[in-house]
Write a structure and sequence with these properties.
The protein has 1 helix and 7 strands, in the order ββββββαβ. The C terminus is likely disordered.
C-alpha cells in the first residue's frame, strides 16, 4: 500500500514576525502560513539548528509560539510550530482560518 503525505494548505500573507532566541532578535516577514508552520523572508538564512519564539500580530490576534527550523536556504526559510498546548494549536488554526477567509486578497497557494 502506498502512503501519501499531504501537506496542510498554505496561505499567502505578508506579516511582520519577530523571532527570539535567548537575547537575539530577528525581524522577518511571514510570506506563507499553515497550521503547521510558516515560510519566512529573513535578511540572512537562519542557523540550521534554530529554535526559539515567534511573535506575530495580525488584526487583533497576537501569538507567541515556539518554533524550530524546518528548512533553511535563500531566499526563504521555513519554521514549524512547536505546540505546547491545544490552546496554542487552536489559536493558530483560528488565525489560519481568518487568513483563509480574507475577501478580495490572495489566499490558498499550491505548493509542490
Amino acid at each position: 500500500m502506498h502512503k501519501f503525505n499531504y501537506r496542510t494548505p498554505r496561505y499567502v500573507v505578508d506579516l511582520p514576525i519577530r523571532l527570539v532566541l535567548d537575547d537575539f532578535v530577528i525581524d522577518a516577514r511571514c510570506k506563507e502560513i499553515s497550521r503547521d508552520g510558516m515560510q519566512l523572508e529573513v535578511g540572512q538564512s537562519l542557523p540550521s539548528d534554530f529554535h526559539g519564539l515567534a511573535l506575530l500580530e495580525w488584526h487583533g490576534a497576537r501569538l507567541e509560539l515556539r518554533v524550530r527550523i524546518a528548512h533553511t536556504g535563500a531566499p526563504q526559510d521555513a519554521v514549524r510550530f512547536v505546540f505546547e498546548s491545544e490552546k496554542e494549536r487552536n489559536a493558530v488554526a483560528d488565525l489560519v482560518a481568518r487568513v483563509a477567509g480574507r475577501p478580495g486578497e490572495p489566499g490558498l497557494v499550491l505548493v509542490r
